[in-house]
Design brief:
By secondary structure, this protein is of the alpha/beta class. It contains four helices and three strands; from the N terminus they run αβαβαβα.
């Protein structure tokens, strides 16, 4: 992925490719739901106490996601493939019983 060839996601309302650090943080602060493949995105979702669904697809990144998933019992909110998304979560954008994961640490 480069600035010259940003990916287009037809399922996303908006995609942002050139945010500065402050803008990036503010997006997390104002978000209603966070869908991320970024470990730091996951941490910011937790820090800002936002409902989220995090996923990892790359083997080299899985250990950090799995550690958080096991440590805080977040296996429903951290997945490694689309089949692992809880039934109804993708359709509701997290606005059902998945609106706030339990056992979220104060970080």
């Amino acid at each position: 992925l480069s600035e010259n060839k940003p990916k287009y996601f037809p399922w996303a309302n908006k995609s942002f490719w050139d945010l500065g650090p402050i803008e990036w943080i503010m997006f997390f602060k104002r978000a209603k739901f966070i869908y991320t493949d970024s470990y730091h995105g996951l941490l910011f979702a937790i820090k800002n106490r936002k409902p989220f669904l995090a996923y990892y697809a790359e083997k080299e990144r899985e250990s950090r996601f799995i550690d958080l998933s096991l440590r805080y019992n977040l296996n429903t909110f951290i997945v490694n493939n689309i089949q692992a998304i809880p039934n109804g979560m993708a359709k509701t954008g997290g606005n059902s019983q998945y609106s706030r994961p339990p056992n979220i640490p104060n970080i």
